[in-house]
Write a structure and sequence with these properties.
The protein is of the alpha+beta class and 86 residues long. Helices cover 23% and strands 7% of the residues. The chain has two helices and two strands. The chain has a two-stranded antiparallel sheet. The model has no long low-confidence stretch (mean pLDDT 94). This is Ferredoxin.
Length: 86
């Protein structure tokens, strides 16, 4: 699954720089997570960094984007290949 940021977000700015996939950005009212880039930190860390640093615990799993660990790992592989220098 991808993660999502709920409306409990206080816009504290700590999650965005922690995301290794640049999946988090400022939305209209609160930060948002791009499900196409979110791997729940699979391939990078044991636990999602944004969840670990969030002071208000407002980053649950997004039930609209159900993915297996294997799918998240495949997404991680694709994203890191895109970052690799040509």
């Amino acid at each position: 699954m991808s993660l999502m940021i709920t409306d409990q977000c206080i816009n504290c700015d700590v999650c965005e720089p922690e995301c290794p996939n640049q999946a988090i950005s400022a939305g209209v009212e609160i930060y948002v997570i791009d499900p196409k880039r979110c791997t729940e930190c699979v391939g990078h860390f044991e636990k999602p960094r944004c969840v670990e640093v969030c002071p208000v615990d407002c980053i649950p799993l997004d039930p609209a984007y159900v993915e297996t660990r294997e799918q998240l790992l495949a997404k991680y592989t694709q994203l890191t290949a895109e970052k690799a220098p040509s």
